[in-house]
Amino acid sequence: MTAADFQAVWLTALLAGTTTLLLMPLATPLAWWLVRSSSSVRSVVEAVVALPLVLPPTVLGFYLLVILNPTAPVGAFWVSITGQSLTFSFSGLVLASILYSLPFMVQPLATAFRSVSQETLDAAATLGASPRDQLISVVLPAAKRGFLTGSVLTFAHTVGEFGVVLMMGGNIPGETRVLSIAIYEHVETLNYDAAHAMALGLLVFSFVSLWAVYRLASQRVEVIRG
Amino acid sequence: MSGRLLVEGKLSRGGLSIDLSVDLDLSHPVGILGPTGAGKTTLLKTIAGLDRGFSGRVEVTLQGQHEIWSVPGRGDLVPVHRRGLGVVFQDGRLFSGRTVQANLDYAIRRARALGRAQDVTKMARALDIASLLQRPVELLSGGEWQRVAIARTLLSQPRLLLMDEPMAANDNAHRDVLVDYLSDWREQHDTPLIYVSHSGAELERLASQCLVMAHGRVVAQGKTAEVIGGDSKAADAVAIFSSATVLSADAVTGVLTVQVNPGDADNLKQITIGDQVTLGVSESASGFRAPLQPQPGEDERESD
């Protein structure tokens, strides 16, 4: 593997890490709302959140390209405040990854939140806990495993991104040339040895991530102390 | 100690409309008695603000202070966590995934009067949970679980205690200790108590006044000794009929035929020929309880 390949590995890890860290605080209130709300728009929001699961990444990438390119209003606004384009840039990839990985963070969190019954929250309320206090002292500790699962899945899913990156990121070394793109390029240029090394690495990483998630899910609930 | 509680309003539960109208003098502990499905738990939940289907008025006077917790059409004016209540639910509702100590700490940290020193060790010893403090609550027996729930609620230093068959899963020896401890604690802390139970014996020791509920209504209210007729077994009634129409009364043969309200007809399933029943006839309403034998198990859970 060349220095450029290592750069791709680093860039991929950076993208996945940034996406996971940013998505967690965004997905938490969203998942909480989805679980608690009885609003009629809830199912609409649920469907929108799940869209990346069924849409071809090219469709999402295409629309993002249309909306975020510097000549479109949103893209132009971003350029005016940051001086950078959202398309064909790392920050654009982060934004795309957040949208693309949304269900992978929201759904494990929603499942974890759902496991906290109304009865338990009622008990906390009678002990003097405000709704905010209930969220922090009862719901979040109980959802610890949901956060772990969501983070691992989001990270792994972002690492495995291809279509969205190709559509709106292109192949700029150090900026948007992530692992999957690098592998594609190696295959295109018949550099099979490099493609093999990276593909195998990605395969092992993905397997370990999923194995960790399933292992996590089968473990007994640990005891929260204090 | 003085206090008063007023509940007025309606709620619907699975097609059944419950009309709650209760006026309680809180200066003495209040017992609530009635068959399964009578609305006892619903009444407690309504007072606590935990019944989301309730629309009506809840007013309370505690320690000389009058508060309006809920008014018709405007919902809850005072949210649950600001009512200063202590509720012990039938199922305890401990926080799972935590130790007994962590559950108690949760209450202590949010106790109403933080400054007031509480001897947790002493309480734990009295309630026979001292050896369980480091145990995850999942590993507790039913009785232990309930005792921890009682301790947790008392440690939150409530202004008003609501208890829903809090000792049902405990054996008689533990129940005796719990009743004594609760009586002492309540007197020491000057805290009003509303206590739901199937057990007349428990109520006679804990509550000097008592109300009987059936089908979502209060059908009798008065001094505990009078309400349960001095015979604590009467409180173990499996069915209480709010009223019945006498069809025939033959003083010679001693045969009495009564027709119960259509709404009470389901209760007749609890009765078989040969059962002993207790009848009561009053000027305002007539009713009878049936049967005294066999008595229901005291750990029977209420489904409402």
Summarize the structure in words.
The complex is a heterodimer of chains A (226) and B (304). By secondary structure, chain A is an all-alpha fold. Chain A has one domain (3-218): MetI-like (MetI-like fold, Orthogonal Bundle), CATH 1.10.3720.10. Chain A has 11 helices and no strands. Chain A has helices at residues 3-36, 42-54, 57-68, 73-82, 90-114, 118-126, 131-142, 144-159, 163-168, 179-188, 192-218. In chain A, α1 crosses α5. The longest helix of chain A is centred in the N-terminal third of the chain and has 34 residues, at 3-36. Chain B has 304 residues and is α/β, with parallel strands linked by helices. In chain B, α2 (100-109) packs parallel to α4. Mean pLDDT of chain B is 81; it is low at 230-235 and 283-304. The A-B interface holds A 119-120, 122-131, 133, 137-138, 141-142, 221-226 and B 48, 50, 79-81, 83-87, 89, 91, 93-99, 102, 105-107, 110-112, 136, 152-153, 156.
How would you concisely characterize the structure shown here?
The complex is a heterodimer of chains A (226) and B (304). Chain A is mostly helical and 226 residues long. Chain A is built from eleven helices and no strands.
Write out key terms for the chains shown:
heterodimer, A: about 230 residues, mainly alpha, MetI-like fold, globular, B: about 300 residues, alpha/beta, Rossmann fold, 6-stranded mixed sheet, 7 helices, 16 strands, about 25% helix, disordered C terminus
Give the secondary structure arrangement, pairings included.
The complex is a heterodimer of chains A (226) and B (304).
Chain A: H1 3-36, H2 42-54, H3 57-68, H4 73-82, H5 90-114, H6 118-126, H7 131-142, H8 144-159, H9 163-168, H10 179-188, H11 192-218
Helix pairs in contact in A: 1-5, 1-8, 2-5, 5-8, 6-7, 8-11, 10-11
Chain B: E1 3-13, E2 16-25, E3 30-33, H1 40-48, E4 55-62, E5 65-71, E6 75-76, E7 85-88, H2 100-109, H3 120-126, H4 142-155, E8 160-164, H5 172-189, E9 193-196, H6 200-206, E10 209-214, E11 217-223, H7 224-227, E12 239-241, E13 244-250, E14 255-260, E15 278-281, E16 286-290
Parallel strand pairs in B: 3-9, 3-10, 7-8, 8-9
Antiparallel strand pairs in B: 1-2, 1-4, 4-5, 5-6, 10-11, 12-16, 13-14, 15-16
Helix pairs in contact in B: 2-4
